[in-house]
Amino acid sequence: MSLQIRGVNEESELREFARVHATAFGHRFEQEKLEKLVLPWLPVVNCVAAFDDGAMVGVSIDLPLTMTLPGGAMLPIRGITWVGVLPTYRRRGVLRALMDHQHAEFEHDGVAVSALYAADTRIYGRFGYGPATVVASEAEVDVRFGAFAQPFQDPGQVVMIEDRSPVAIVREVLDRARPHIPGEVDRMQQDLADMFTAADEKQFRVAHRDPDGGWDGFVTYTFEMNWQHEAIAQNRVAVGTMLTAGPDAHAALWRYLLDLDLVRTVRVRNRPLDDPIRWLLAEWRHYRVNHVSDGVWLRLLDLPAALAARGYLHDGELVLDVDGSRWLLEAHDGRGSCEPTRRDAEIELDAATLASTYLGGYRFTALREGKRLRELAPGACVRADSMFRAEREPWCSHDF
Q1: For 284-308, how does the pLDDT look when each residue is reduced to its tens digit (9 = 90+)?
Q2: Looking at residue 21, which CATH number applies to its domain?
Q3: Is 44 strand, coil or helix?
């Protein structure tokens, strides 16, 4: 087998690109979705394919994003998605060839960090990726226990949105929210539009205005009907997207959801672990997190540049042995620098494990206990945790 890796952009090849991706994930695109959503989107992203003797056997997409780092810096990154290999070509080096090609392009362009979502936690560690955020992948509240602990008077206004594609509202909320959320990324206009093109016709959209009239919160939801004995409402509200730029918008939208008539539970997905709803509720035990999972995964393509780009809550220095290379990380007044060093290492780990600590979502001490790294100097992991901790739990609302 002789693989060729190259970009594709012709319509005929993009149709084959979509077919290979779907086959790799065990489905076929409906024609309407293919024509209205998939084919218009593919030309605006970078499509890379693997060919064996002229036949397309593997695919991957990368797109430019900007990620918020601890300390508030915005870092240009690349997001990888749509990675798939035909079942007949698995375990033959196709994925490795695709990833190596993309990483080489990223490094050539001076990109320090790349990101993806992993379909399987066993795959991407060998390519230098580590899970960097932890999310409540599913949680719910029984509305019978939805009273707030403290009285809440909304200084703004909750508004039902009838616009079938309120892209401008979501853009305003996102641009106001993401500077304060480590791990959050911006979104291409096409992605924002596709949120609504692909939306269920039964979806409701609600937004929140602040006292000055600006948009600072947005939520989408659908009803899942369940009438017990055809007379007792057990309906569930399933929240699709929920994004807020401040505590008042967050409280107001939760209050709206919990006060909907004929509803028994409100279910949310992909929420940050520190979602303040737990503290808003008087009976917080009834905010039940049903599943906790990894979120976005990162690879540090340029380790010193990546570590210098983020902020640090505490001053300090740390000598890291990363895959056999030693680096001195120094943090002062919130900023960091990273240089090669000959000093004795204090923590020994691989690049994927270091990537897990990058946003502050995974602690060095926990990774030490999980045998993912070695502490060579007593107290080094506690010191590292204090340096790397973010202002809040990192989270990415966009499953790209």
Answers
A1: 999 999 999 999 999 999 999 999 9
A2: 3.40.630.30
A3: helix
